[in-house]
Design a protein that fits this description.
The complex is a heterodimer of chains A (282) and B (330). By secondary structure, chain A is an alpha/beta fold. Chain A folds into two domains: 33 residues, no CATH class; 224 residues, 2-enoyl-CoA Hydratase, Chain A, domain 1, CATH 3.90.226. Chain A is built from ten helices and ten strands. Classes of the chains: A alpha/beta (282), B alpha/beta (330).
Amino acid sequence: MKKWYERTDEKRIPEKSKAKKMPEGLWSKCPSCGKVIYQEQLIDNQYTCMECDHHFRIGAKERIEITFDDKSFKEMDTRITSLNPLEFTDNITSYDKRLSQAMKKTNLTEAVVTGTGKIYGIHVACAILDFNFFGGSMGSVVGEKITRVVEKAIKNKIPLVIISMSGGARMQEGIFSLMQMAKTSAALALLSEKRVPYISILADPTTGGVSASFSMLGDINIAEPKALIGFAGPRVIEQTIKQKLPPGFQRSEFLLEHGMVDIVVHRKALKATVAQLLRYMT
Amino acid sequence: MILDFEKPINDLEKKLETVQKTYEKHPDPERKIEMKNLEKQIKRLKIEIHNHLTPWQRVQLARHPARPYFLDYVKLIFHNFIEIHGDRTFKDDKSVVTGWADLDNQSVMLIGQQKGRTVEENLMRNFGSMHPEGYRKALRVMKMAEKFSKPIITFIDTQGAYPGIGAEERGQAEAIARNLKEMSSLKVPVITVVIGEGGSGGALGIGVANKVLMLENSTYSVISPEGCASILWRDATRAPEAAKALKLTAQDLYYFGVIDLIIDEPLGGAHTDHLMTANSIKKEIKNTLAKLNKLSSKSLVSQRYHKYRTLGEYIEKNQIKTSRKKITKK
């Protein structure tokens, strides 16, 4: 056997030229510990860091892939899009224009994808918010689509699962956005009355008008580890109380400690946990 | 406190006062004519200014420190008020006042956000910004009203729910969310009156009602103009522009179908005549309540559900769906 310094196999010491040829986007760097992770490994690990368990923020499409049984997800209400009811503009770009930019950038029609799918064979109605589209914020369309998926769960008597990731109500639609909080919460009251189970999953971040409406109203509220969850954003609180916030404030574990979420579940255990809970509740 | 745009009116009023004083000392018919002219001028100027208020000027009126607050209306509109304290879990949040009262010959449950006028009052009232225990107190008394089949009247006047450490620890988001859900299925009439500032989720947390009434110069918005300006331009001093962009006036909201009625204020604003404002509110509450009293509990719940179910504006399969009223905007 050769001594270690005599070994010359290519696998151990990749040539510089080969490394350069690596196409972009194949590697991700963990924002928490800095570990560089091969994309396929990251996907296998359900977009969590194998080193420090950091949960990457993921879009609705990735979420659907890791949550539902293969090819079981059927999207609904795909042809409903936002208008600019306030004729809102920041004096540089109008809200309409920003909407079409967001659509192009994300390949989504709005900040939520709704539909039905199967979780270990259990048929559920589901809504997944996407933070990439206007910070996952709720305007008329998000409110309407969420309400419809709640109504779908009521009509078909199937459990409801909502996965939230949102900065809150969408400022650009003003009072219409605010009213979606009442609309979605009222629909959930009906769901509750019909004794249809609702599991709310809160991912990083879930704040403002979304946390203060449907996200906090699950029969079971599940949080992903270390997700920022709260009513007011940390910056607003710091400005109000004029002091720095303690570390871990408004993170999942903090909410668990204060009795606001039921369980903190690692993303890799999420699907199995949801399925087991649904078995208890149906 | 005199607002910028009120200054020309105030100047004339001061002038009138001096003339009045001289007239009292030396009753001279010329002074009398001068006084009449000044009075006419003041009225004309008030109409001129108050017919063309900008959204920001309305925000200023809604926040006017002399504007009547909830407890002023309790005294001027209701009788036999008995305050009910506390959420029976944590504490009594004094930024919201709740209790039983008589509205002429009908008993009602009142819930109102209360601002303070002095430093001490504001410390006690937390400037009308509620904590979770406030929302839980409100819900507790709403459930009590439901239990005894009595209508609920809520008064909104807040910058917003309080953003602080304790508020987050005790679940501000959960408290508001739960109120939205529970209020939607209350089996008794619920009327909300926006009397000053309607600050986002903190306002809505006691505002899911069968009918929402709004004073002419009150505002209701998803975010404060300052907050909006900070986000858009990193500059809170551009709040007047943001106020315009947010469409937060009673007139806008009526047009959007979000509120049901605008209550006129006295010329010059509610702060110029508390009693007259209170009487207008009383009249409209009584009218609204008379209509809601005729509905069964089932119809009340479904009317309220339908009201919020239809709010919004979007496009689906090339068709615009909107809650906007089909009237031409003035």
